[in-house]
Every structure is written in structure tokens, then in C-alpha cells.
Amino acid sequence: MPPAVGGGPAGSEPRPRRGRAGVEGARAVGPDVGAEPAARSPKRPARGSRCTEAAGRWTLLTLVTLLSFATRFHRLDEPRHICWDETHFGKMGSYYINRTFFFDVHPPLGKMLIGLAGYLSGYDGTFLFQKPGDKYEHHNYMGMRGFCAFLGSLLVPFAYLTVLELSKSFPAALLTAALLTFDTGCLTLSQYILLDPILMFFIMAAMLSMVKYNSCANRPFSAPWWFWLSLTGINLAGALGVKFVGLFIILQVGWNTISDLWHLFGDLSLSVVTVGKHLTARILCLIALPLTLYTATYAIHFMVLNKSGPGDGFFSSAFQARLSGNNLHNASIPEHLAYGSVITVKNLRMAIGYLHSHRHLYPEGIGARQQQVTTYLHKDYNNLWIIKKHNTNADPLDPSIPVEFVRHGDIVRLEHKETSRNLHSHYHEAPLTRKHYQVTGYGINGTGDSNDFWRIEVINRKFGNRIKVLRSRIRLIHLVTGCVLGSSGKVLPKWGWEQLEVTCTPYLKETLNSIWNVEDHINPKLPNISLDVLQPTFPEILLESHMVMIRGNNGLKPKDNEFTSKPWHWPINYQGLRFSGINDTDFRVYLLGNPVIWWLNLLSIALYLLLGSIIAVAVQRGTHLPAEVEGLSQVLLQGGGQLLLGWMLHYFPFFLMGRILYFHHYFPAMLFSSMLTGILWDTLLRLCAWSLASSFLARGVYMVGILSLLLGTAYSFYLFHPLAYGMVGPLAQDPGSPMAGLRWLESWDF
Amino acid sequence: MLGFLKRPVVVTADINLNVVALTAVGLLSRLWHLAYPRAVVFDEVYYGQYISFYMKRIFFLDGSGPPFGHMLLALGGYLGGFDGNFLWNRIGAEYSSNVPVWSLRLLPALTGAFSIPMAYQILLELGFSHCAAMGAALLMLIENALITQSRLMLLESVLIFFNLLAVLSYLKFSNSQKHRPFSLSWWFWLMLTGVACSCAVGVKYMGIFTYLLVLAVASVHAWHLIGDQTLSNVCVLCHLLARAAALLVIPTLMYLLFFYVHLILVYRSGPHDQIMSSAFQASLEGGLARITQGQPLEVAYGSQVTLKNVFGKPVPCWLHSHQSTYPMIYENGRGSSHQQQVTCYPFKDVNNWWIVKDPGRHQLVVNNPPRPVRHGDVVQLVHGMTTRFLNTHDVAAPLSPHSQEVSCYVDYNISMPSQNLWRLDIVNRESDTEVWKTILSEVRLVHVNTSAVLKLSGAHLPDWGFQQLEVVGEKLSRGYHESMVWNVEEHRYGKSQEQKERELELHSPAQMDVSRNLSFMARFLELQWRMLTAKSDDSEHKYSSSPLDWVTLDTSIAYWLHPRTSAQIHLLGNIVIWASASLAMVVYVLLFFWYLLRRRRSICDIPEDSWLRWVLAGALCAGGWAVNYLPFFMMEKTLFLYHYLPALTFQILLLPVVLQHVSDHLCRYRACTATPLRGTSSRGVLSVDLGVAWKGLRSQRRHRGGTGEEGVAGWGGWESRGCCGRWGRVLMALGQPVELARLHGVQ
After folding, report:
1. Which of A31, B80, B167, B367 is most buried, judging by how many CB atoms fall within 10 Å of its CB?
2. Residues of B with CB below 8 A from A131's CB?
3. Residue from the list B221, B458, B599 with its beta carbon closest to the beta carbon of A560
């Protein structure tokens, strides 16, 4: 067997030189890296007591943190009006304070924290947050902004500590901190009431605690080990609880954990039981703990929001019964559907609404000229239908006739209460979905033809069962054509009052579009029961809200003829986002990354890939590297590799997403990219310094390199800081503007 | 010199009769009654259209796949002398006598038949026995979904053929790597891998999954090669370069070649022209080229032009205006300027003509010599039929209230001045003084007063606008989008008087032939881009299904139904094969992880070489299944059962692999424990259990059959009860397979 085949694609033989987190590996690498900086850092004094070193370490950290806080909190109160998405998230914060139920495509934690911050800082939830540009007036918004800015400021020290842990090099960590502090994009994004600073906080915190617990790997089951491990889990829950994008950091931690366990498993000095203990600890801290916390946020969410509000219509009828103020709350209606009942029929798919008809005909040329049948999201008398037997027209509410329940499989007729026309379908094409049949209202005073007959079926039930209000999922099958009543979800033109199209689909697929439930139910002959028995359990609510969120996310589709932000725009800083103001008289804030930093990041990724593959090939060819280079390449391949993985995980999935995308989606990836830049340039300069013979020259090259990078970013921040802190005056193409000459790309519009 | 006279010329033919027999039976099953039914069956209705286009040399655009597959089908039509005259409009329609049904269906049938011996070869090259190879080939032979799909004018069987060819030639290549690198056969198989990969991609985009898989396996092997320190650096470099050339460069070139041939073949204009840009259309024979032939290249002041929107969605259309005005009050209560409507109209019309005017002069004719319009110039656009000026102002557009209304200015004397100056911005300019060129220049018209850009919003106006498309002025700052870009399509120099006509004709500028101006790469890139972005209406279909239905075979497709006799063709898999193949998949994955974990603890259940063989077979077969199946979960297009067939083929290959492995290794432990020669110290619980099961089986056999079979049964495994035992005996009688003898010896 030739070796090429022999190698096999899943080369699984343990490679000791890549043993990263295994105990042996850590021991082998640990002292190496730990001792290395002192020897190879030309910057720091080789000698020096532990005490001064610790003091220096703390001073640096404090310095970095202070600078970060200073930049983030500087002019935080400006502008004194709503900027960009503050209108959403501020509003949602207010909803929590007012305990009003709402719907959003993101999980609740971020908005809950915003609401909490507002509540604690004395904001009363009365501001309407109607549209960007509205003045805050006397309302206290600084608490919420301050909270976001606080979390946003912590990103810098977190990145600093992460890089320090990965590279054991202060200059690399300092460079990273400078890149993030002086990035106008990160700065802008941290200054407003948005989910992004909260999300990035949890992502970075998870990353930091993961790196920390990796470095505790040689002391498993010690207190710090447990602390960092469980902290990782907590932060994962936080990240996922703010936005679903938090999934990417979970993948990263998951990958790290798997490779970690793989190394432990391959370490034959550990017994299987010990490995099992390791596995259990990770399952506990990284799966069970985050899941519990994540679920808990939902529990709090549903507990706090107990009043009916704008989000009701997105949820199922049973769900709405929980909300006070909703007409289903504490309502009591008859439980089983009977002939003669007046009902409303709601589509099970989100945001389709109730089966509806009104006294308007389909226009000329669109199917038969009969009364329109649509779906409508709001409650209205025209949503009421009477359920009747197909063959008699006797009034079933006549007290002399005994109550007869509707059963699964019965043939029924649905009469529109206001217009007395029957739900009808026939072989005419539907107005928008040409392959389906048209649904109309037909007949006079309830007398129509055989095209008015529908068979009512309950999903997953046996024939002959009664039909439960709210809980039974029903289908209406047209008897003559065999098609199923459904809504296509398409908006009808003006003539249909922009309500949604109802069709009869000949494809008998089980999609939610063709499944309905009975919501209101009026029948004086039947005893009412309280709806409380129908209330869904917590797991059902949890599942339903996730389904609704996922569908809501999928529904955010870009339009064809609109300019939309594409993922490839982001790393090159192609175009920013306007936070506030358009004209030269406005106070303008423009979310745009500091181009110097962003393009440096881009360059660094390319350089990293080049350098990384050269080193990897050299190692694979068995080249013997000198000790210094060996240590540096370890840092580059392992620390840098983790950061590169983070960047890729937070960036590439966006290429696959169908939903509408915005520039700010790139910022989590940008954090990783900046950390990678820090490590890369530090390593690169050290390599340069090493290759130069004279130690004096080497030290000089290294120092000059790091310093010029630090100063360069600081200077570029000085140039671009008006983007974040606000600009007034003429636009950039005007020479009198503060930003004159800085519009380096035509696509930037400030 | 004359050595051949001294020694006899000897030709030793080594013919594997199994392969011959398999091929023969395969051909028989695929070709028998091929021309039946003489009616359009299912998707033949699509492919047939394209074949007709090829036969008539008419340009078409098909978003479903690259042109190579269609061309192969068209080759069948060409050989059968098809003239393309058939109306492909309905499934079930009877073919007229001029349609060579047999030759049209021949190619897919042949590829389907040849896939069978290839499956055999692949298993052999993976290092498995002839018996397993035979099993794989037989499974392929009798799988009725594959038979159905190969016997019709469809592309799946062609795709499967090239997929298998790519895998097979890569295996041949990598097996010859050790002994004869850079030999002739080494090069041949390496090149063939690249060619087969590109053919697979050329037939359907789906082929790219198999291509990526082969690339992945090749790069892992290349990585091991880099690590092989017995080779010199130069040697490694040569190896890498050869692979890069064969697996990256050749496929790219081949792919371009398909398009090159395609564009040579279809050179006449046809019904799909409209989707393409004006420049592309002008490069086709007939259609727009006939109109634009000989028109002046440079747009000058006084030129009469039609302006086409470059984006062309939802439909391609031209800037248009007509006598009607915007309604004073819209239905939703907003007001308008009540000026003359400007729309985008998808049909050629005399109202699409506009005159480019110099704001400084009054004349609407071209000077002598013509003064060309350049990038950055400010112009006015005058509507030809109504002589009104294109205008926009701070009034909300009818359907897109965030943008400005565009109108042809009517002076109502209501202190609403005309704002009709537009600055020309040539988007694809090479210099800042570039002249506005017909067809080639893509321009934005930027309004001077408000810096709004003329844009097609894509919305259809209501009845008052005759359902034409809305045109708006969009703020420049909203970013660049193709719907803001226009190009001149038809163009002539305006001449108001008859006398001047001749003069101008004499002085008309150099005429151009746009088709020569458009390079192949430009045409390829445009065509490829339009093919990828062409939206198929994602309407549901009666027989569409979801990927989950495929594995469980919960779906089928009625391909054809005879209107009277109810004879029918149904695409339906063989449930036994599908279920057992899926089971094999599960067994493979479980065993793989079991071995992997135990190897990590330095416990080797199986010898190293058979572990490597097991991994490689899994990477190609299980991997081939995964890459051809899992991506469908992320696709939003309408999916059918036949999309699963390429994945199924790989799964079928995995089945005998797993069976042989189970019989070779798990079932043999029983025997091993009996013989003290093989001291396998560590034996998993699983293998012991299976060993017990095997013992039961064997004792059964002993009762039923003779003793002569035992040697074969020992390695033949579960399958040995069926074909394998018999085949094994036949093979042993022939004395061919070495493995058999060796294994027998061990027993």
C-alpha cells in the first residue's frame, strides 16, 4: 500500500508537537512560552523582581482600561436624540419596564438587560422611541447608554488579557488594545442603546474565560479551573441569549473542548475514568449550565411580560390566552365545536391572521367576480364565520334542535356572518398564486352550491373525534376539487386592501399555511369553560417562541432593487452605516471602522496565512527550527490559530445567510481579527529582530515597529474621531468640512 | 531492429470476464426498449427545449446548470439527425416522427450502463475483494431508480458517471503513486481526474461537491507527501505542481471550454435575449444586432437614444414616458406633482426615444461634426414624442415614498420650477474624459439640483400607470446598485431636415461592430453571472419533496402516464437497497468512531493497512454520500427525489465495503480465538458479540451446505450465503484473486 493512500485522509496518529492542551503538551509548551518572553523580548528588562513585574502588569491593565472607558464615555450623551436602532431596542427596554408583551427576532436577554439598566437608572418607560431623530427631552436615557458603553469599554481589557494569555507578550496585547480602543467603529457601536455591545461583551468574555481555563489545564479540577470553565458556560449562555449569532462562539468553544478532550483521551497516563470525569465536567459546565441559564432568561421574559401588547398577533391563540388585556385572557368559551357556532379561524403560520371576507368582489379579470376571501391580521367583525351542516339550512341555534358537535371528517359549510355568503372554491386560478384555486364567498343568505362544501379534518386525530377550540389543528378540504384551504402569505394589491391572499392548494402537503385553528367560539347553547385549561406549558411556550423567532428571521429578506450590504463589503470597510443625520446642518454620526486599522487587519490576515503556511510546511518537511523561532511559531500557530478560527466562525457563515445583512454584523469578527493582528505583528517583528544579528539593532527594529504601529493607530483615530463623536458642518467633499480629504473611498457617505 | 522476427509477437490479454459480463448486462438493462415510450417523459420537456435550441443554434439561458450536460444531450440529437422542430410544451405529448428518441436517450443510457463496471473497479482500487466489487456492481445494476433515470433524456446518470470516473481515476492515480510516479499511466489518471471533475461540474453544478471531495482527499495526500522526508524538496514541488495543474488548472480551462463551445454553437438571437445586457445581445446574430448594426458609436448632443436599465429586474425595460400625468391624489391620500409620468416599459415603443440635449443650446439636432457627450457633462433629456424634459424634484414617488418622483416637466405656473439638469456619470469608464458610447457605456444620471440618481425601483404602477414600472430619483448616498445604471441601446443622430440627411450620412463616425468588441471572457462572465442569478420561480410542485423524505423513500415521482392504457413510469427506489445502504452508513460511522477512539487509547483492533483502507473507503464513499446529500438541506429551490441519486450511488458503494469489513474482521475473531497463532490481546465487546453471532451462522451453514465452502465462508461474511459464496468459488476456481488464497491460508 503506497503511503499516499496509506496516510488516509483522517490521519489520526497523535502528533506530540501539536499537543496543545494535553497535560504533557501544556507542560512542554507552558514553561517554554512562559520563560521565552523574558529571554526573547528585547523590550522588557531581562531581570527584575517579581514584584515590580506584577505592578507593571497591573499598571498596564489599568491604563488600558482607563483609556477604553475614557474614549467610550466621552460625549456619551450626544446626540440627544434617538440614533438608528435605538428606536427598536430602547423601545423594547421600555416594554420590559411597562411589562408589555412584544415580539422580536432576537432572544430576550439583551433587551432585558437594557430594560433593567433603564429601570435602575430611573427611566420610567414612558418615552415612545418612535423613530430615529426624536428628541429625548427630559427622559433619562443615559442609564441605558451608559450600561451599553460600560460593557463596550470592557471589550478592550478583555481583548488585552486574551492576547496576553495566548502570546505571553505585553507588546502584542498592547497593540490589540490600541487597535480596539482607537477603532471608530467599535467606539460608535458601544455608545448607543444597541444589542451589539452586550453581544460582543459576552463573546469576548467567553473567549477570555476559555483561554484562561485552557491555561489552567495543568491543574485540572482546581478552583480556578472550575471557575473559568463555568464562567465560559455562563458567558456562552449570555451570548446566545442576546442574539442567535452567539451560536458561533459556542461552536468555537465546542471545537476547543472537543480537541481538548481528544488530547486528554490520547494521553495514556490518564485512566478512562479520569477522562470520563473531564467529559462530565465539560458537559455540566458547557452544556447543562448554559442551557439552564438560557431557559431561565425565557422564564423571566415570560414572567415579566404579562400584558397584552404589539406582539400578540405573532403567537398562537393558546399563547395569547396568557396575556392580560388580550381578549382571550381569562376568557371562557365552549370547548368543543358544534354546528351553529360563530367562530374565527386563524392560520397557524405566523403573521397570516384570520380568515376574512368583506363586501368587495374580486376585480374584473381575476378569477370569478365573486366576493373576496382574504386573511387579515387584526380582529374584526368580518372575521366571523358560522359553521353549518352542508345539507340543511335550518338555524342550528333553534332551541328545539339538540346540540350536535362537529366531528373530524364531517362535511361542513362555512357561512360568513356579516354577508351570509359561503366559503367557496372552484377551478379558477387564484389571483396571485396561479397554480392554486381561487377562494371566494358565494351564495345568497347561505344558499350556494356544492362547491361550498368542505371536509373538516383534525391533524393527527382519529375520525369521529370532536374538535377542540384553540388546540385542534384543522385542515379544510374542498370536497369537489380535493384541494386544501390555505393562505399563500402574499399581499394582495390595492383592490384586496393589501390583505393576504387565500387560496385552495391542490398540493396536499402538510405546511403550516394550510393548517388553521378555531380561536373565538360563540355558542349560547354550550357551557363555557375557562381557557386556563388550554394554557400551554412552559416547554411549549419556549418551543413556540423559538419557531416564531426563526421564522421572523427568515422573513427578513432583502428586496431585489435595493442596495444591501454584502458580507464581502465588510472587511474592506466598503460602506458604513448612518447612525444619525444626513444633511450638513445635522449632527452626524457615521458607523465606519477606522480604515487604517481595518485595512491593517485585512493585511494581517493575509500575512498570517502566508507565514502560518510557511511554518506549517517547514515543520511538516521536518526542518529543524531554532529554539526562538520554535517558540514564536508555537504562539503563532496555536494562539493565532484560535483567533483565526474565531474570525472565520464569526464571518463566513454570513455568506450563507439569506436574511438581510448589515455592516455591524461584522464587528464580532473584527474583534478576533484585531487580536490576530496584535499577535501577528508582535511575532513578525520578533522574527525580524531575531534574524538581525546585532542585538542592539534587533531591539531597535522591534521597538520602532511596535511603537510606530501604536502611534499610527492613535494618529488615525485622531483623524477619524469625528465619525464617532459626531460631525457638524459641511459634508466631506466640501474643503471646509472637518472631514475634508478623509473620504478615501467614494462609497463612504459622511 | 528486426527483433520481432526472431521472437514471436505475443499479446497477453487479461480480460476480466466479470467486468465484461457486468457491462453487457448493464447495457442490456439500460438500452432494451429504449425508445419506449415515444412520448415526452417528465423533465425531458425541459432538456428537450434546450436541445431544440442547440439544433437551431438559438441562444438560450438556463439557470439550472452549465452547458456541458445540455450539449451532450444535443450531441445525441445531432447524431440522430434531429432538426429541432418539436414543441416541447407538455409532459406526455407524443413525439413526432422527426424526433430521434433512441439516439437522444442513448447517451444517458450508455453512461448509466458504464457506471456499473466503474463501481466494480472503484471497489477493487480501494483494496477490497472482487466479491465486494461484484456486489457493488450488482447493486448498481438492479437499483430501479438508477435504471429509470438512465433510460430517459435526463442528466443525473451522466453526472453519476463523471462522479464515479473522477473517483476511480483518482484512486488509480494514487495507487500508482508509490511505484511509478510520473509514469505515463500516472499522468493519464491524474489528468483524467481533473477532466472528469470538470465534466461533472459542467453537467450540473452539483458536480462541484464531488470535485471538492476529490480535492480534499488529494490535498490530504499531498500533505502526507510534504511530510515524506525521503523525497527531495524539488521532487515534492514537482508533485505539488503536477497536482495543482491537473486538479485546478485543467478543470478551470475545461469549464471555460464548455462555455466557449456553447457560445459558438448558439450564436443566433432568441427568446431569452432580453435578460442579457445590450452589449451581449448585440453580439448575437439577428435580434438587437440587426437594429444596432451601423449605428453611431459615440453619443453626441442631439442624439436620439433609448435607455435600457442594466439591472433588468423584475423585467428588462426601457426608460419611457407618455402623455398621461401622475394622478393628483394617490389612493392612499398622498399628493403628486400631477406632471407627465416617466416609467420603465418592457416593450419596444416609439415613446422610449429620448433626445440628449445640451442645456446651453436650443437645437435638437446633431452638429457637424458631432460633439460627443463625455463623462461628467451636464445634459438634458428630452422626450421625443412630447418634447418634455426629464425632471425630478422633492416630491415623493408614487410607490416608493422615500425617493423622489421623476416626471416630464409640465409648467403649471405654480412656483414649481423645472429641475431638468442631469450630470452624466459613466460607471465603467476608463478615463475621466471618456465619451458616452452606445451599448458599451453604463451610465448613471445624477440630478444636478438634488444629486438624486435615476433608478428603477422595481415596483409596478397601478392602473393609472398602465402597470408599467416605477422610475424614481434615489438619493446617491443609498449606495451603488445596478438598478441605477442605464445604457443606450438604440441610437441615431437626430436630423430635423431632409437635406441634411445625406450630409450627415457622409460625416457619420466610424461604425462599429459591437460583437467584436466583446471578448469571450466578458461574454462568459456575463452569461455565468446571469445563469447563477436567474431566479427560477420557486413554485411548489406536485412531486417535490424534502431531503428527509429521500432517505426513507417517502416520495416518488410519476414520470409518465399513458393517457389511455394507464401504462406508467414511476421513479421509485428499491427499498431494500436504500434501507440496507443507509444501515451500512450507520454501521460505518459507528465502527469508525469505535476504532478511532480505541486507536487513540493505543488499542488497534484491526491491522494498520486495513484501517487505512477502511478510512479511505469511508472518506470517498461515506464522504461522497454526505457531500452530495447534506447541502440540499440548505438549498431553497424545489427539490425532487432524483437529486438524491448521486448520493445514493456512493452509499451503494459503501454497502459491500462495510459487509466485507464486518466479515473480514469482526466475524473472524471467532476463528482467531480458536487459533493461538494470532495473539490479539485486546478485543472489544462488540467484536466478541458479533463473533458469537457469526458462530451461529456458521454452524447453520455447516448443517445445510457441505464442508468445501468453509474456507470461503470464513471471509465471505454475511453475504456469503448469497452471491458471494458462489462467486467466491468461481473466482477461486479461476485462481485469480490473491487475497482469497491468502485469507484462505490464514483460515
Report:
1. B167
2. none
3. B458
Which residues in B lie closer than 8 A to residue A620 (C-beta atoms)?
A: 223, 226-227
Q: Which of A696, A683, A670, A585 is nearest to A631 (CA)?
A: A683
Best to test chain B binding among A557, A561, A575 (most B CBs inside 10 Å) = A561
Chain B residue with CA closest to A562: the answer is B481
Measured between CA atoms, how close is B435 to chain A, in angstroms?
22
Q: How far apart are CA A484 and CA A476, in angstroms?
A: 6
Give the Cβ contact number of residue B416 at 10 Å: 17
Extract the C-alpha cell encoding B662. 464486518
pTM comes to 0.80
Residue A671 vs residues A593, A650, A682: alpha-carbon distances, Å = 12, 10, 17
Q: Supply A707's cell numbers.
A: 511603537
Is A398 within 8 Å of chain B by CB?
A: no
Distance of alpha carbon A629 from alpha carbon A689, whole angstroms: 11
Res A39 pLDDT > 60: no
| A439: enclosing H helix or E strand | strand A437-442
Q: How far is B710 from chain A (nearest CA, A)?
A: 29
Residue with the bigger pLDDT between B497 and A645: it is A645
In one letter, which amino acid is A305? L
pLDDT for B115-136, tens place per residue?
A: 999 999 999 999 999 999 999 9
Confirm or reject contact between A273 and chain B (CB < 8 A): no
Q: Is B272 exposed, middle or buried (0-12, 13-18, 19+ CB in 10 A)?
A: middle
Quickly tell me which residue has 463623536 as its cell: A725
Q: Which residue among B236, B540, B615 sits closest to A10, beta carbon to beta carbon?
A: B615
User: Measured between CA atoms, how close is B680 to chain A, in angstroms?
Assistant: 19
Q: Which residues, 6 or more positions from B710, have their beta carbon under 8 angstroms from its beta carbon?
A: B698, B701, B702, B747
Dump pLDDT digits (tens) for A109-145.
999 999 999 999 988 888 888 888 888 888 888 899 9
Task: Give the mean pLDDT of A628-648.
Answer: 91
- As for the ipTM of the complex, it is 0.80
Rounded CA separation B449/B391 (Å): 10
Q: Do A6 and B612 touch (CB under 8 A)?
A: yes
Q: Which is higher by pLDDT, B538 or A656?
A: A656
d(CA A700, CA B152): 75
Distance CA B534, CA B61 (A): 9
Residue A589 pairs with which residues in a beta bridge?
A580
HSE, CB side, 13 Å, CA atoms: give it for residue B618.
Answer: 24
Note whether B361 and B389 are within 8 A (CB): no
**CA-based nearest residue to B23, from B113, B140, B98, B88:** B113
Contact yes or no for B458 and A10 at CB 8 A? no
pLDDT at B701 over 60: no
HEC assignment per residue over B6-34: HCCCCCCCCCCHHHHHHHHHHHHHHHCCC
Cβ neighbours for B9, distance < 8 A, ≥ 6 positions apart: none
Q: Which residues of B touch A562 (CB under 8 A)?
A: 478, 481
Summarised one tens digit per residue, pLDDT across range B202-225 is 999 999 999 999 999 999 999 999
Tens-digit pLDDT profile for residues B164-197: 999 999 999 999 988 888 899 999 999 999 999 9
DSSP code per residue over B493-532? E---SHHHHHHHHHH---B--HHHHS-HHHHHHHHHHHHH
A584 touches chain B (CB under 8 A): no
Instruction: Outline where DSSP puts E strands in B363-421.
Output: 378-383, 390-396, 404-408
Give the end-to-end CA distance of chain A in Å, rounded to a whole number.
Answer: 65
Closest residue on chain B to A432 (Cα): B539
Contact A497/A378 with Cβ under 8 angstroms? no
**pLDDT value of position B118:** 94
The predicted pLDDT at position A560 comes to 66
Please give the Cα distance from A264 to A266 (Å, whole number): 5
What pLDDT was estimated at residue B501? 53
